[in-house]
Amino acid sequence: MLCLRQVCLFTLRRYQARTLSSDLLVSQINSCTHEDEVFSLVGRNKARLSEKHVAIALNVLWQLQKKRPLLLRTSDYIRNHSQFLTLCILAENKVEHMEDEAIVDTLYSILRLNVQDHDSLAEVLVTEAWKRLERLSLPALSKFALCLYKQHRHFSPVIGKVAHIVDMKLDSIQDIRVLSVLMISISDVISQSFRDRLLHKAEQLLEENDEVHFNYAKRILQFLQNVKLRYHPLVEKCNKIFLKSASCLDIHSIGFIFGQYEQLGFDSAEFRLVAKQLLSETIDDHHDPETFAKLFFALGPMAGSKVRERLLLTAVHMAEEFSSHQVLVVLKTMQKMKCRNSHLLKKMASVLHKHLDSYHVLQLVKLTQYLVALRCHNLELFAKLKMLLFGFLKSNVIPADTAAIIRVLAMLPSFQVEEIIISKAAAVLPQCRLHHLNCIAAALVKWNHYDQFHWQNNSELCVKLLQKLNDYGFQRLQKANNLNLLLEELTHVNGEWFEEVLKEETMAVCQLLVDQITRANVLQLSFFLIKTNDRCPSLLDRIASVTVENIDKIHPFEICFILFLFSALNYDPPANEAFFESCIQRLTSNLSFFETHQLVLLGHVLAVAGYFPPVLIKRIFNVSFLSKLDAQLEVLPHTLKQRVRLHLMKLNRAVCLECPEFHIPWFHERYCQRVFHNSSSRINPLRQHVHRMLTEILGGSNYARISVLTPYYYEIDFECILDENKKPLSYTAQHIPLDEVEGIHMRHDINGEGRMALPPGAQRIALEFLDSKAFSKNSRHLKGEPAVKKRHLEMLGYQVVQIPHFEWNSMGLSTKDEQIEYLKKHLYGIQ
């Protein structure tokens, strides 16, 4: 008994000593402040290292690296150290004894230390974690999923298993960090319904958490990009998180966010302002090519003239150091900036020669597009591009890539078409989607038009190929039985070929699928109809009814675009008042969703339709609002900036004319003067011809004016005055003052004040010629803007005569005498 007691005490003391020793070693490893300290401990205690010690040591090595800036990390040194190899061997041998969390942590640590994805330890850890997948906690599962994502195992069976577990446990996930990691990791293996559940869960968690780290929001943007979904409600929530976290954002985060916004079709003037301020303050801190390229991309398009020049100058000096990717970024940004800096362009072209062979096919396509848009004249560079593109074309078997190459070859200067292009195009036609067919058609039409074929035989082949292409386009449309898939294909389809060949058939197919219009696709269909300028009552009526039925489920921003469709086409659906009132109620209750420039665009859309919600008008025409708008306009893209300014003027004019009770002043006098003084002359041959006929009809040149500016700066083609007996009155005899500025007659009562009275019963006549742009496609129905102009001219005291192009250009008015009779009838027949 005594012997047994002594054995037990000895065993207990040895166990306690080992435990204390182990705990001490764990503490020593955790307290290391440098990699060499960790390696020293490993070297001295190899025999005593348990699976726990190994896992902790590898984790500490990563944590030490994580604390350092990217450029100061020493991952290569760590991986090449003999004791790191020792740790990896020990981990591989002890993996079965590791705890679940330790396996995932170890895998994560070695991958962050840039161990090869297919290293034996990585493979063993993945296999062991896969075995224990069902029992991993949600945080450990998300970390493991992220490891698989970093290893590019996007479609592996294990990722499918992870997705299944997430599907089962989704309702129990309450941590947005865990969810965001899982979302991007499984994004390639989920169904549409599962995707929608993930989005709903993400929205819910973002709403429930006041403090969300901006990295989680970045992951959600990445998920939306991965699944190629433009879902603005969730992007807006992420944008608010970025604005709250502005002080924590660096150049890498800002560049990432701008890149994702561009891909997702989202823009935020407020974020642009914040980013511009942050980047402008740190412009002198970016001396290496990587961070400068990101600075150029993010700041360049919204920089003022002085900062812009600094950026361009630095880009010239740094050009030789740019990587192939950074060259693409700079050229893309130059295109967005509409930069024609010849010195920088020449420098980038010379640098490109050493990078061309490293680009894959789609990068070459984008590169060619940038150079053509920037008007590069380096023929040697284009010759090399042509050679490389031809090489890819010959070996390529992917229809989308083949179509992209053919489309971009058509952009090259002095390009001669070779038979290989015709044969490759013919080979992929049966597999092409509508967008790819459109790309090939655009190239063939251009080549045929400019006769760029080497041999006559090629020209004949091209015509036959175009006919085949048309047939495949019709076949693809006729097989369409899913509106969502059809709209997805039509997103990037436009141009001459589509308009002339496929548009009519496309509209017919959409009408056949009218019952498939839902709140999920109503916005996409509205975009398509805006693009095609087509007034199709059955589709428009269905859009209106679906919108009203789902008004509380459709995002206010989407409702704005739907209203734009009806406003622009000047179309009244059944129950028109109820439709607009329902939409306006939804919009005015959610004005906080809109940025200042978006509210201006919304106000203009409603004004064209004849609606002026007081809450919106009073909000826009407010000094603080207009000051905020001025600040945001400075960072918006040039085209959008010009459109907002123009629409603010139009809204101001509409409110002054139609809602005098709001007492909003007209404050666009200088803007309008500047626009008209900077614009080119508008006296075209048709106007001169008609003016001569009007002079003949009315009895002299002093009875008619050409290109007249009215009060509030409407320009009308012709103006004359008729007395109560329909006889013309001379401007000279009536002493009506007019200034002539660059061929434009401007009335002195331009602001509507101090207006010179006409004789009793006399009437001003505005004669307007309406071209095809004033009407819906293939329709005689007047669009919204021309209808508003007529309404406003009548408010200004005019009787308006509108001459449609389809009447003036008809066979019935083929002679001068017939045209004169037509004008007489419309001038004197006004009731």
TrEMBL record:
Subcellular location(s) per record: Mitochondrion
Stretches assigned to the RAP domain: 765-825
One GO BP annotation of this record: regulation of mitochondrial mRNA stability
A Pfam entry, by short name: FAST_1
Coiled coil: none
GO cellular component, one term: ribonucleoprotein granule
Swiss-Prot/TrEMBL keywords: Mitochondrion
Name the record gives this protein: FAST kinase domains 1
Chief localisation class: mitochondrion
Domain of life: Eukaryota
MF terms in GO: RNA binding
Keyword Mitochondrion: yes
